[in-house]
Amino acid sequence: MKIKSQLIEKEDISSLSFPSYSLKKTPEEKRELKRKLRNAQILGNIHRNKIRIIFEDESNTKEVRTTVWAAGEKHIVLKGGVIIPIRRIVDVRL
């Protein structure tokens, strides 16, 4: 699936505003996203691989190419302590 997104730098994420509501996803899509995030964390911590994270802020769809350091229940943490709420992530491309 091709998603049109604006490529941004990791450092710009902290200035974005994220709505409090979640994107609509089926339970299966949520499980798949969690699996991808766990794999992204492993790739980031062991191999320092960058991945593509597609997410939505309050205005549009954005994409960042970076390393995932931690994937929790509600947020992911990128290199430099930048946080993205999982509820706003559209997809992760390894």
The secondary structure category is alpha+beta
Kindly state the number of beta strands.
7
Question: Main beta sheet, described?
Answer: 4 strands, mixed
Ends distance: 14 Å
- Major sheet: arrangement of strands: 1-3-2-7
The residue-averaged pLDDT reads 94
- Give Rg in angstroms: 12 Å
- Measured as a percent range, the helix fraction is 10-25%
Number of domains: 1
Order of helices and strands: EHEEEEEE
Low-confidence stretches: none
Number of helices: 1
Give a brief outline of the structure:
This protein has 94 residues and is α+β, with helices and mostly antiparallel strands. 22% of the residues lie in helices and 32% in strands. It has a single domain, classed as Roll (SH3 type barrels).
Keywords:
94 residues, alpha+beta, SH3 type barrels, four-stranded mixed sheet, three-stranded antiparallel sheet, 1 helix, 7 strands, 32% strand
Protein model, in words:
The chain is an alpha+beta fold and 94 residues long. The protein has a single domain (6-93), classed as SH3 type barrels (Roll). It is built from 1 helix and 7 strands. The chain has a 4-stranded mixed beta sheet, with helices on one face. Strand 5 (75-78) and strand 6 (83-85) form a beta hairpin. It starts with 5 loop residues before the first strand and ends with a strand.
